[in-house]
Amino acid sequence: MTAELVRGQNHPLSQTRVEIRVSAGTPVLALASACDDAGRLAGPESVAHPGARGLPGLEVPGTVAGEHRFAVDLDAVAPAVHRLGVVLVLPPGGPVRFGAVPASYVAVADPEGAELAGYTLTGLDAETAVVALELYRRQGAWKVRAVGQGYAGGLGALLADAGLGGPAATALADVATGLVPSGDITLASLPTAAPPTIAHGVRAPQDAAAGTAPAPPPPPPEPLPGADVPYPGTPGAAPGPASADTIGGPPTIDYAHPRRRRTTSEPPEPGPRAVPSPEADRPPAPVAGDASGWSLDERLYNQVWGMFEDLARSVAAYRSACDFAESRMDRELDEALSDPRHRLGGSGNAARDAARARHDELVAQARAVLDRDLAQLVAESEVVEPALPASYARWANPVWHGHAVPEEAPLALRLGDLHLPERPDLRIPMLVRAPLERGLWIDNGRTGSEAAMTMDTDRLRRAAMDMAVAHAVRLLAVHPGDRFSVHVIDAAGAGAASLAPLVAAGVLAGPPAAGAAGVTRTLEALTRRVDLVQMAVRAGAPEDLPPDVDLADQLLIVHDFPHGFDDRSVTRLRYLADEGPAVGVHLLMVADRDEASAYGPLLDPLWRSLMRLSPVPDNHLADPWVGHAWTFEPDLPPPGSRVLEQTLERIAAHRRDARP
Amino acid sequence: MTVNMTKGQAISLQKQDGGTLTAVRMGLGWQAAKRRGLFGSRTREIDLDASAVLFADKQPVDVVFFRHLQSDDGSVRHTGDNLVGGAGQGGDDESILVDLQRVPVHIDQIVFTVNSFTGQTFQEVQNAFCRIVDETNGQELARYTLDGGGQYTAQIMAKVSRVGGGWQMTALGNPANGRTFQDLMPSILPHL
């Protein structure tokens, strides 16, 4: 199994004999650089290139090719070498920038051929040389890090950045790229007038290699205006300026790696950022996707839950310190009061002041620690939130504007935001795994919370129904076209205004069911589906289902419960709530518990089995670690935004195209 | 350079280069009971448990043990209960990790204890040890050998306490009797 790395991420290597595999979209040179623990090259002999292919423990290929494989024996690497860099260079005469060729993929494999870690080099533009991976020593073991640091100035700038003197770097670069036969390299033949390179920033100056005549062709003077379009995709002529620059390159710019299927639920690759410093002492800059998982979605999901847990625990530490400070002050004040020595003279006041000072000091310390933690989490949130895929993203996130119907079901869904009173602006996405294990219940009752009490009934009901519609649109949008259908029961037609966009777009399985007959019919159909699918699953014969059974996941929105429900329908609804989730039938109730009070305690298990959400901010959710009361806030499209309608249009268009 | 600590000895948890420690781990290891021929399943397994009790002003405020594997603030973590012990080859069978920078400010002492949950005394346990490791570099700071320790079922190992801006560790090595840390509370309190 391969760990797909993102830029800056590292991965431990359990083996010391590994194979480096390079798969580039265009013929490239693969080089290796051996640096010390500060990332500096000892000299030109520390670079393995086609002119001098061997370094202790490895030998790089001598040819220019689209695919490279070479073995590395990490045990044989010289002890002074702490970092082995895998460098890809575009040879002269081919494409002049990595941005013009398909993204390369570099992997580390074990001797049996199984890939341990891989990294796709995305986001490159005018670079002609790039440090793709780095194998480095960490506490006696080796690890691999995805670096992806490119140099517009070519290999010369790359080597100069690694501490090789400017002329030596340029000369070595020329030898390595085959411009000068390797026998000719002597110090005497180095051009003395070579300009000093000033390549210590993140990117080398673009003209770093321009001073020497045989250097690789200079890169384009500035980034192309169209180069940051994430997914041009359409075949045909490249945008104007690109065709001028990509001599001999493929006609279109395709950033996708040929072997990697890109799902549209994936967020765009994060923009260029400084490679994290390898020193462990500095607090690392937060990176989106900095968690374990097989895919970026899974990593982001785990990262969000990690942030949730960290915030819960940091606040728990702060609150327990404050509680302790409070109880200690109370005790000391009591003691000061009851101490007979304090009755005469002013010593009592001094004792009370001392107790208060001790309290304030401890609270201030706790606050400082909390602020440090919160600052870290806020920084992480700022990085993570824009990187979220549509199913995890707020409606305000730009990812929704470029959203297309995905090919795979989502890993998780965002139901809203969570925050704590200590830092109300730090919002944690409330993510639940999809498919939903429990039904949802949007509480439109006014007795549910204080915020609901202050709203009038009509507005609250409208808000609850709008929220339900937003969830339905999100579910429809993040599932593949034919894998999700939505049914609505709106017995009295009271939710018609909110449901209008869904009805107008024609994405519902049928018109909203009205009246007692409609309720019965819809519930009957879904009950039959649950029953049949359960039977088929139990018998192990899912292919024997009647052809009219819809195998897509179903969402049933129930509005106005229990209006239009008879006893039989209530029993059916409870059956769906209990048995449905296991076979892909999910319930979304928009209801006021008080209106169903006529049923007495009979319905309590139904309410308890659903996850309660509120259309207004309400602190009814507890975290699983320390049990804080978190304030839930629904996530609705920003006022005036047409993101819901646009998303619905896209879903409807996709469905029209799917069945011609 | 391991310090084989003696009872009551205090060492400051300062790194050799002057920086304070940021993360320590208490490791506990012991050798599994020997198999007894045909009816090996009847062998009485030995279950030792490591616990950490967090004190603020001499009041216990949190505890990390096999039923509560992480302190509420997340700074102290138990890696999980081991019911049978290891081969006694020097590896830790149970570990408690303390992220000293994250410990809430009001907690000023953390006491580590070892209990024999299955009731064997330390005389019957082979190769039992307990150690404190600097988690950042794996260096062993202190080690205690438990076996041959007499007719006791528990030991109050060590305490880590705040001194100035840093932390210092004091080896306690006080034998006691008890099944879990709760039975030890009366014996712990005099050491605070």
From TrEMBL, chain A:
Residues 205-292 are annotated as: Disordered. Pfam families: TerD. Residues 68-160 form the TerD domain. Residues 214-224 have a biased composition (Pro residues). It comes from the Bacteria. Residues 225-242 have a biased composition (Low complexity). Belongs to the CAPAB/TerDEXZ family. This is TerD family protein. The lineage of its organism: Bacteria, Bacillati, Actinomycetota, Actinomycetes, Kitasatosporales.
TrEMBL record, chain B:
InterPro entries: Stress/Tellurium_Resist (IPR051324), TerD (IPR003325). Pfam families: TerD. Residues 1-179 form the TerD domain. Signal peptide: none annotated. Gene3D superfamilies: sav2460 like domains (2.60.60.30). CDD domains: TerD_like. This is TerD family protein.
